[in-house]
Structures are given as structure tokens and as C-alpha cells.
Backbone:
């Protein structure tokens, strides 16, 4: 059963399975901003990526002399979170390490996710707590899918993404095994706008590292509806859509898929976060809807 939070501008639904954001609707227009989750294309709407982002080389990593296996994007998206306090436009979800998670990720932790509404802004905050007595290594990312087209009688190609800084950035291609290739390719060349097309993601996600921008907007020149997505504090950004599906994912990441030449040692994984025993770590992204 979905957990519902709302204020006078937005109605939001979150599913305890994966603490997954399922719906954001504007009260005045009844406009839905989230992808429907049609399983014929992609059955998710906003999975949480933890304790890894993307694919591990050979599906495994090494830590303290042992080999561990984790599926793409980790296990958080597949577990049922405990529901904490709900009310006043906010909801809190959490889950802790179990014997099952320890078999794949040998760290004791608690992951808490808070959804909070402030007028027409949804803020999503992640809190990772190291509950063990050794340093913890992890990655965390978001994967929300926003509906495109947003408005009836418009098409996918009527929309574009606008960065809040002019970007001269390369993309990091993904190979057939889901790993980052060794060398990037030229992509954004002193521009702040990226038009959406059906073939934009034909070679999988667009992966960027260390962009200048901290905000990206989804807009159309045909109407005034859209969203501004703020991701300050996330060093990696992915953009993706399934083939011929009516959405675009805006994915801020602290962590990234393994590269083709990674040595599979967890401590040397690119973008890995380090958290000392009994310490906590937090990041947040937010979306302004209009």
C-alpha cells in the first residue's frame, strides 16, 4: 500500500517496497509528473541505488580477502522499508542490514530516506549510518523517471533538458557488460541545452562526471509546465530512458559503474564513499514542479 503525503500544491505517493517514489501530482492542474512504471518498457519509477551504483565487473567485488556478489544497482530497491513517521507533508522510510545483506555486503548499516514537501518542492534526503566497528565503503544514487510528454497533444521531441551552467563535458560510454569504457567521448560542447529525442539513449545511459551544473530542468517551448531538479553534492549524473518509453530519468549518483579495467577491489572503486565506524553520511536532491 502506497504511503501518501500532500500539501496544498502537491500530492505524492511512495511505496514501502524500495521506498520508491511512485507519483507526484500537481493539485491545481492534476498533472502527473512521474512515469507510470509500465513493465512493457521499464517497471520502476524511482529506485534507490545502494550499496552500489551501476554494474560491478563480473558482478562481484573483493573486500578483506573475500569475494562478494551484488546485482546491478544493489539490493535497496528490492527490500521493503520500515515506515516511520508520516504527516505534515513528510514521510520517513528505513531499513537496516540483515544476515541476508551481510552475505553480499559485509557492513552493518542503517539507510533512512525522508521525503518532504515544501510548497511545490519535493526534497529527498538519504542518511547512511555505519552501525559497525569498521570503515564502510558504499555508493548511493537516485533513479527517478519523469513523464515525457508531460502534457497531452505534445510529443517527446517537444521537450528538452536545460543545465543551469554551460557545459563542455564528455560522456562515458557503457559497454555491453554494463561497464564504463576506458575513454570518454565528446558530447556537450559549450551548451546548456539538450533536446530529447527517441534515439538519444540508443547506446544506453548518458554518464557524466563532475559537471559544472547543480541543477537540470525539464522543459518544453509549447507550455509552461516542467521541473527543476537540483543535485548539488552528487559528483556523477546519469540520463536515461528505455527505448520508445515516455519518460526520462535524471539520476544523481555518489558512485558509478565499474570501469572495464577496474581491479574489483572495493576500496579502489571509482566514486566509492568512505564512512568511519559509528558515523553518518547524508545527501539530498530536490525537485521544483510547475
Residues:
Amino acid at each position: 500500500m502506497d504511503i501518501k503525503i500532500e500539501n496544498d500544491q502537491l500530492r505524492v505517493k511512495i511505496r514501502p517496497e524500495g521506498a520508491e517514489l511512485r507519483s507526484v501530482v500537481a493539485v491545481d492542474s492534476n498533472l502527473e509528473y512521474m512515469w507510470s512504471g509500465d513493465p512493457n518498457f521499464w517497471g520502476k519509477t524511482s529506485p534507490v541505488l545502494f550499496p552500489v551504483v551501476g554494474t560491478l565487473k563480473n558482478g562481484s567485488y573483493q573486500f578483506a580477502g573475500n569475494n562478494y556478489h551484488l546485482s546491478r544497482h544493489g539490493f535497496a530497491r528490492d527490500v521493503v522499508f520500515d515506515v516511520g513517521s508520516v504527516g505534515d507533508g513528510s514521510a520517513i522510510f528505513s531499513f537496516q542490514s540483515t544476515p541476508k545483506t551481510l552475505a553480499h555486503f559485509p557492513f552493518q548499516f542503517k539507510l533512512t530516506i525522508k521525503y518532504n514537501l515544501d510548497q511545490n518542492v519535493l526534497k529527498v534526503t538519504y542518511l547512511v549510518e555505519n552501525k559497525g566497528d569498521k570503515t564502510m565503503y558504499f555508493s548511493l544514487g537516485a533513479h527517478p523517471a519523469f513523464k515525457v510528454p508531460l502534457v497531452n497533444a505534445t510529443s517527446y521531441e517537444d521537450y528538452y533538458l536545460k543545465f543551469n551552467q554551460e557545459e563542455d563535458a564528455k560522456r562515458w560510454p557503457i559497454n555491453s557488460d554494463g561497464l564504463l569504457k576506458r575513454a570518454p567521448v565528446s558530447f556537450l560542447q559549450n551548451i546548456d541545452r539538450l533536446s530529447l529525442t527517441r534515439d538519444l539513449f540508443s547506446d544506453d545511459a548518458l554518464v557524466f562526471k563532475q559537471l559544472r551544473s547543480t541543477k537540470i530542468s525539464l522543459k518544453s517551448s509549447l507550455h509552461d509546465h516542467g521541473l527543476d531538479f537540483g543535485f548539488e553534492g552528487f559528483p556523477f549524473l546519469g540520463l536515461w530512458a528505455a527505448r520508445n518509453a515516455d519518460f526520462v530519468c535524471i539520476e544523481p549518483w555518489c558512485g558509478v559503474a565499474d570501469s572495464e579495467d577496474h581491479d574489483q577491489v572495493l576500496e579502489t572503486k571509482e566514486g566509492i564513499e568512505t564512512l568511519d565506524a559509528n558515523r553518518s553520511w547524508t545527501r539530498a536532491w530536490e525537485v521544483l514542479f510547475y
Q: What stands out?
A: The CA atoms of residues 160 and 195 lie 4 Å apart.
